[in-house]
Design a protein that fits this description.
With 353 residues, this protein is an alpha/beta fold. It has two domains: 183 residues, Rossmann fold, CATH 3.40.50.2000; 158 residues, Glycogen Phosphorylase B (Rossmann fold, 3-Layer(aba) Sandwich). It is 37% helix and 14% strand. The protein is built from 14 helices and 13 strands. The strands form two sheets. Strands 3-2-1-4-5-6-7 form a seven-stranded parallel beta sheet, sandwiched between helices. Strand 8, helix 7 and strand 9 form a beta-alpha-beta unit. The longest helix has 20 residues.
Amino acid sequence: MLKYAINGRYLIRKQTGQERFANEIVRELDKIVKPEEFVIVVPQYAQIHAQYENIKIVKYGSVKSHLWEQISFLRYIVKNKLLSINLTTTCPFWSPGIVCIHDAAYFEISNLLTTNLYGKLSTIWHRILAYGAAKRAKKILTVSNYSKNRLAENLNIPTSRFAILRNGWQHLNRINPDESIFSIFPPKIIRHEYFMALSSLSPQKNFIWIKEIAKRNPLKQFIICGKYDGATNVGQETLKNENIFFTGYISDEQMKALMSNCKAFIHPAIYEGFGIPPLEALSCGAQLILSNTTCLPEIYENSAHYIDPHKYDYNLDKLLQDPVESAEIILKKYNWAEEAKKLLEVIDEIEKN
């Protein structure tokens, strides 16, 4: 009997951290659920390549963008009396069911996210949905203790309303590195000598830190993988420096090749809910240089080299000489399959109540 509808908009969006989270959780969930209980609902116009064994994909409604969730997806779950499961922050306002809000950025760093009209509208919209979830959701998921505590305070709800589902890294086991990515770089980019960063070019990711470090270390090479974020005015021109090279958006195969060959992976974020790229890099054998703020010390513990994201007087070679714990200690803690089991436990708890 059909009971649960997964919001499938993540299947038609460009893959970033939250879409990765949804993809991998659902992939593992499909292995442990009963047939005919779960359905993934996507817009009628969606071009879907994903296949599942026990979870059916249904196309429903032709409304575009965010309004599809508020009209078509809402209509489907109400019509079929289903509990909605929303894994990428947005959800139907009137029936959020289970919703994962990955961080409290739209409340705590709105000054960084509202530098243009798109950012202002996006911030208002996400706050409205978060308040709706706080009032109506059966359970709110998030990805770290830090995010749980910050969301609880900003939404003025108890932490007992939350359950934590963390990210994993095992998807990289399915990916073969694409070494051809190195052909786009000049000869001076030497494997195991460059520093790498990967994310959207949004201000909270603090790639200005990399620019300042690059200016102070002209003989070192830095590769930034990511693209302009529509919510902000930060782009390649802002970060431009002679020893910084930009790849734009890259494939998973190219990402794995770069992570496997870098001297260190840098993630100097000012604000983060979990931070999956460092976990991916760690699984590829990279050393980590991370900001000492928000959730990052919670997630990566003693496996990383930490920096103050507001200071630039670092000797990177000296920093990397400091001892850190084995990556295996951290990698053993994060597993997509275990997180899917936790989601099923949340669903079972709701059913019992």
